Amino acid sequence: MGNGTSIGRVRGKGSAHNGAHHWLLFRYTSVGSLLLTVWFGASLVMMPSLNYVAVREWLLSPVAATAMALFIVVNIWHAQLGLRVVIEDYVHEEGNKFASLLALNLICFAAAAFGLFCVIRLALGGA
């Protein structure tokens, strides 16, 4: 379909002209979240004990630490994408929408930074 028809002008764009990109990101992060959640659940089940020392020993492995960092980033990114849509759909006043999106982004960034800091600290053998 070309630009001459009504469907050709809007295909893949949506009202904000970037809807397909957001939709794909949301789908990719949901698949990543599913795979990493299955990995995380299986890792917890296979652990001999769930005390601090056992978890720290587990995170000393580079594979486990990297996968845990990805688990944190992907899940927070997925949550941010979903909450962004809710805010854009239901907050109608532009000032409130801007403030809500700013707060959402700051909270998600802080949560990801804190989670990654904790994984790095444990992976490097910190107490």
Automatic annotation (TrEMBL):
**What residues form the membrane-spanning segments?**
25-46, 58-78, 98-124
Is the keyword Hydrolase assigned to this protein? no
Q: Which UniProt keywords apply?
A: Electron transport, Heme, Iron, Membrane, Metal-binding, Transmembrane, Transmembrane helix, Transport, Tricarboxylic acid cycle
Question: Keyword Transmembrane helix on this protein?
Answer: yes
Give the residues annotated as coiled coil: none
Q: In which pathway does it act?
A: Carbohydrate metabolism; tricarboxylic acid cycle
Alphabetical list of CDD domains matching this protein: SQR_TypeC_SdhD_like
Q: What is this protein called?
A: Succinate dehydrogenase hydrophobic membrane anchor subunit
From which source organism is this entry? Novosphingobium kalidii
